[in-house]
Amino acid sequence: MAVTSNNIANIQTPGYEEEQANLAPAPPLPPPGLNMPAQAGQMGTGVIVTGITNQNSPFLDAQAYAASSTLNDQQAVQNALSQVQSIFNEPSTSGLSSQLSAFWNDWQTLANDPSNVAARTTVIGQGQSVAQTFNSLDSQLTQLQTSLDGTVGSQVQKINQIASQVATLNQQIVGVTAAGQEPNTLQDQRAALLTQLATYTHFQETQQANGADVITIGGINLVAGNQTTTLAATANGANHGFQALSWQGSTVPVTLGPGSLAQSINLRDNTIPGYETQLDSLANALATAVNGHPTTAPAATALTGTTALAAGTYEVAYTIVTPQGETEASPTASVTIAAGGEISIPPVTVPSGDTVNYYVSTAAGSTTLGLAASGSGTTTVTLTALPTGGAPPAAGMGQYGGYAIGASTPTQTDFFTGNTAAGIAVNATLAATPSLIGAAGTPPGTAGDGANALNISDIQNQPWVGNSTIGDAYSSLISGLGAQASTASDNVQTQQLLVNSIQQQQTAVSGVDLNQELTNMVASQQSYGAAADVIQVVNQMLSALMSSV
After folding, report:
1. pTM summary value
2. Does residue 97 form part of some domain?
3. How would you label 360-372 residue by residue, b for 16+ Cβ within 10 Å and e otherwise?
4. How many beta carbons lie within 10 A of that of residue 445, not counting itself?
5. What single DSSP character describes residue 268?
6. Considering the domain boundaries, does residue 38 fall inside one?
7. pLDDT tens readout for residues 441-459
8. Is residue 52 in some structural domain?
């Protein structure tokens, strides 16, 4: 009745295993011997409790631990991939796919109207949005790695705590067993701790004859009797300072089986970096493709001199004027001559009928930038004195956009700097001066020429990542992520069914069945009542016997 009462009281206690009173016949009388009475024997003397044991199955326990380790391993994958999907946030109006589409469209708009100031500013702004999206994605993936690294550290601490508690219970169980008692409650506590341990890593449990457990991870004894081996997590400078595992006081490498700890390390060191590598590949392809087209050329080139001008630094610029009066101006460029002389500007070829005007001033601006010469642009212009007169128009933003004055080929300033997801950015020079964007093809082009901008817009249709376009490569990344996340979810569901099945089998063996306990209680009650009736009858018989003497 006491065992039944305890079972009923602990029916909701996690990890409690049903106890059972083991009954056996009491030693019969009389014992054999030369002086035993001459009567029939042996006569039974009742019942005794030989022990109180808990009901469990070591085989099912081992299966449950292994299944739990695998489930938590797969749940770690599912949770991490779910976070990665949230980081990419596709499809959405703020995702990288939408940002790239807007970027190509803005270049198309500029190609249609290369003299449009707003169109150039929009290209710069959208380029910055694309770069910032790359930066943000990389930063969030890095933060996820850092979070996983923190999880590794906390799980290592928890494993060491569990090991210490199991070692303490081992010592207590050995003491109770040596005294000839059953340490059922202590064994339940130990089993509950091992269930927790199974969520972090797979292990092997070996029960000793004295009641102690040996817990082994990858061939190393985490717990042996009342002794433990500490699992250490220390910063690894060769891996971004992330924590690496080792056995304290041992050079044997840590070998982990399935579990949330091993999977957290794998996600941190392999899965997340895999997505970062793909992002870097996309960022590099984007920067390489866009930078492969001339965007700006702020520096003048091929300027020489002899004796007329003093040594120093000068500002040079030019404008091109069409017969219709459309004016395009180059940005101002600084030119330094080490010795006194002339500044010779190689010809700038312009369409028939257009006029090129050259302007020069001192770098300090003490002499007003003024018209130095005009012409068709087919001959070299030699400047022997500083001009005077009105300043040239502001740097133009049309088809000539930013090609170097006097250059036979454009001097290029990249649109993007950096070639990784973390480092890509719009060139600060362009961001400060959108007019430097080169919308035209080979200079000087014709009025309204947007060939260069059109070529950049067409990058979206060209294979820059293997045989894929940048957009297709990104779509492949997202679809691959979705497939992995779906597989992880399916694996979790399948493994959960297995865990549930094993737990049901465990419950059938070690769980407390209230109906069974009530049956046992009634059986005990009836047995007790019958025994009381026997005693009452014997008492009556003895009373009758005594009365007749």
Report:
1. 0.72
2. no
3. bbbeeeeeebebb
4. 24
5. I
6. yes
7. 655 445 566 777 888 899 8
8. yes
